[in-house]
């Protein structure tokens, strides 16, 4: 078996997971903070939108993304108008699909972490003249580090296992859109079970190693809270 047949989809999958997780943390932090503290009547609707990828079949999400990102679709036309790259069957398209598909796995842990924070330190900092932005970065984020770690790990691990969405909008272009999950599917189709075992075992091992820190952190938190 050629090593590149494993390394290329693995490297692409890790790159996609890293880019997606970093962007989701940046986008979801202010969103989760607002959801954790707002009393707006629109909150349930926004929470439902965030949670939709949890219940929608990947094929449904992938289909609508394909329609929107295609050259004739609204987002595809907008990208072309500003000189952007083609979004269908490309890495940027995979990133957009991954952002939507993994959104609740990052936004919800962050929201739960922010909602559980004590407001006493932030109120004390406010009386000393700290701005809301200062209080967010200097107090809220350090207090929510457990939730941030959980969101990071879940977002990364969930992106590793994507299949339906990335297949719909990305196809299987080696080095560009052929991720590990697609490589496993194609190996099984060609009855290359040895290759499929190796690829699937890689995903299994990575996912397990990513989940261990979450449970280790939860265990240590319970220990120090006794």
Can you put this structure into words, describing what you see?
- The N and C termini lie far apart (52 Å).
- The radius of gyration is 20 Å and the shape is globular.
- It is mainly alpha-helical and 226 residues long.
- Helix content is 78%, strand content 0%.
Write the element-wise H/E pattern from the N-terminal end onward. HHHHHHHHHHHH
Using the alpha-carbon principal axes, give the shape.
globular
Alpha plus pi helix count: 12
How does the helix and strand content classify structurally?
mainly alpha
Number of strands: 0
Mean pLDDT figure: 87
Architecture blueprint of SSEs:
Layout: H1 4-37, H2 43-55, H3 58-69, H4 74-81, H5 91-101, H6 103-115, H7 120-127, H8 132-143, H9 145-160, H10 164-170, H11 180-189, H12 193-224
Briefly, what is this?
By secondary structure, this protein is mostly helical. Helices cover 78% and strands 0% of the residues.
Keywords:
single chain, 226 residues, mainly alpha, 12 helices, 0% strand
